[in-house]
Amino acid sequence: MRKWNVFIIEDDIQTAEINSQYIAQMERFQVGGIATTIAEAKKVLPVVNPDLILLDVYFPDGTGSEFLWEIRKHYRNTDVILVTAAKETEHISNAIRGGAFDYILKPIIFNRFQDTLLKYQQYKERMNDSQVENQHEVDTLFNRKKSTRNIQTVQQPPKGIDTITLESILKRIGTDHSRGYTAEEMAGEVGVTRTTARRYLEYLVSQKKIKVELTYGGVGRPQRKYFFQE
Fold it and tell me: What is its subcellular localisation (predicted)?
């Protein structure tokens, strides 16, 4: 069975790890590499030779929007999905003109992420046909947002999720809308590693049991905080 090779270009290693975990849940996709700068991505890209790139916009050494055009020029068989917190219409417009397959805003919800990858899978499978039979099939190829109802999707929790830890985390989250937890804080509350806590929290977000927000305070990267969701 063919697997689509994905290259993650993301300057926040924690976000890259979350994206990688999401991809691991998709049967037909695999992570071929991760780069945290534009310069690193340029070096690794010919080696990874991906089918699909998940590309952020903001990097210390450039922007994903500019790099998109370089990808389009030199890697015409590689598709790009922008995964970013950038909400400026300038970046969105550039992504459209540059032929990006989709534009996903952070914080990422797993169901939205999964839906895009399933649409991409459907699109690539159709493109493997030698020709189209009619205008409807052409319209379907151009309409990438078409429903994925023809693809069987099975929602399965990630490996290593157990109900006791899950219930413990939900209990800590409680019902207070104003009280949010970082993965590190939750790890201390429940008694697990930060990576484990983040995996459980992201799973609960994907199930719409809790929500995640980026909080900007002080110096440094924004933090992902998890809150109760009605």
Answer: Cytoplasm
Q: How many CB atoms lie within 10 A of CB 15?
A: 21
Q: Do 52 and 141 have their domain in common?
A: yes
55 with 84, same domain?
yes
Helices 110-127 & 13-24 angle (0-180, nearest 10): 60
Alpha helical stretches, state H, 25-157? 38-48, 64-74, 89-97, 110-127, 135-142
Quick: pLDDT tens for 146-186.
444 444 444 455 567 877 888 889 888 887 778 889 999 99
Q: How far apart are alpha carbons 35 and 150 in whole angstroms?
A: 34
Q: What is the CATH number of the domain that holds 193?
A: 1.10.10.10
